[in-house]
Amino acid sequence: MPPELTPTRLQLLSVILRLGSRATLTQVARDRGVSKPAISKQIAALQTLGYLEANPDRYGPLTLTDLARRTLDVGIPIYGQIAAGRPTLADQAPDDRTPDLETLLGMRDGDFLLRVTGDSMTGIGVLDGDYVIIRPTEQVNDGEVAVVLIPGDNAATLKRLYHFGQDIILRSENPAMVQMSFPADQVRVQGRMVGRVGVGVPRVSARRE
C-alpha cells in the first residue's frame, strides 16, 4: 500500500466507494460519525494525491479516480487482448481493471437495459438473452435501432426504423423475418439502442468439411 495512503484515508476511500453517487463530504462525515471539518483535510489530501477527482463544489459528489479503484482492487479484470484472427497467447496477469460497469458500457444518466428475447436482430450481434442499452428518446433517424411501441396490447419491439411517407417501417436483422409497417401515428418510439451486453450463446455453426 502506498505510504501516503494512511489507514484513515483508505477507510475514507472505502466509504466513498460504498456510498457511490451519494458520497458527499456531508454523507461521508455522517457515515464515519465525525464532523465535516474533521475529514475535509483528508478529502483534500486524497484529491491532491490523485485518489479523488477534483471538484470545485466543496459539498458536491466525491468521485474515485482510476488510481483509487485500482488501489481498492475494484472492477472487472481486463486480461489484455484476444485475437479473433491469428492465434496469440492470452496474457495471464490483468493489464487493468474496469472503473465500473456504467463507464465500461458508456452509459449516461437515464440510460437503461432491456433483455432481448428472440433472434430477429442477430445480424448485428444481438442474440437471444443479450441485454441492450437504451437511451430514452422519442425521435430516431432512419436506420437506427429503436425500441418501438406498436399496436396490439402495447407491445414493444427492437427493430431498425425507417420513415416511408405516412408509415413507419420496422426491419429485423434476420433475413427469415419479414418487415413490419404501421401508420406513423400508431407507433411510439421509446428509445434508441446505443450498445449491448452479449450474454446470449450463439448457435453452433455447421462444421465445414
Write the layout of secondary structure elements.
Blueprint: H1 7-19, H2 25-32, H3 36-48, H4 66-71, E1 77-78, E2 96-97, H5 101-105, E3 112-115, E4 131-136, E5 145-150, E6 155-164, E7 167-171, E8 180-183, E9 188-197
Antiparallel strand pairs: 1-2, 3-4, 4-9, 5-6, 5-9, 6-7, 7-8
Number of helices: 5
Beta percentage is 15-25%
Task: Please tell me the total number of domains.
Answer: 2
- In the CATH hierarchy, what is the architecture of the largest domain at level 2? Ribbon
- What structural class do the secondary elements suggest? alpha+beta
Mind explaining what this structure looks like?
Belongs to the peptidase S24 family. Residues 77-194 form the Peptidase S24/S26A/S26B/S26C domain. It comes from Deinococcus metalli. Its EC number is 3.4.21.88. GO terms for molecular function: DNA binding; DNA-binding transcription factor activity; serine-type endopeptidase activity. This protein is α+β, with helices and mostly antiparallel strands. The protein has 2 domains: 7-72, Winged helix-like DNA-binding domain superfamily/Winged helix DNA-binding domain (Arc Repressor Mutant, subunit A); 112-197, Umud Fragment, subunit A. Helices cover 22% and strands 23% of the residues. It has 5 helices and 9 strands, in the order H-H-H-H-E-E-H-E-E-E-E-E-E-E. The protein has helices at residues 7-19, 25-32, 36-48, 66-71, 101-105, and strands spanning 77-78, 96-97, 112-115, 131-136, 145-150, 155-164, 167-171, 180-183, 188-197. The strands form 2 sheets. Strands 3-4-9-5-6-7-8 form a 7-stranded antiparallel sheet, with no helix packed on it. Helix 1 crosses helix 2 and helix 2 packs across helix 3. The mean pLDDT is 80.
